[in-house]
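User: Please predict the structure of the protein below. I'd like the answer in structure-token form so I can feed it into my own downstream comparison script.

Assistant: Understood. Taking the following sequence of 84 residues as input:
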Amino acid sequence: WDLHAWEALKYTLPNSNCDGRVLLTTLNVDTASTACKESHGNVNTLKPLSQEESWTLFCKKTFPAESCPSYLEGISKCILQRCE
């Protein structure tokens, strides 16, 4: 998301105080701040996972019944490096 996309999107969302919620995710701090000011919301900043946490999550999701097979560890770690 960027500020231009938010400006185009915000008019499609209802503003009727009917307890509806929108969760906006973005890496752009300006977009998050602008959206929050206009909607009286909150910005929640998430910290990135450590390499160890990333590896643990990746293995749990990719190999739920077992640990990562040794012959796939190299390619699995290459995939994780691309996600930084």
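That's the full token string. The longest helix spans residues 51-62.
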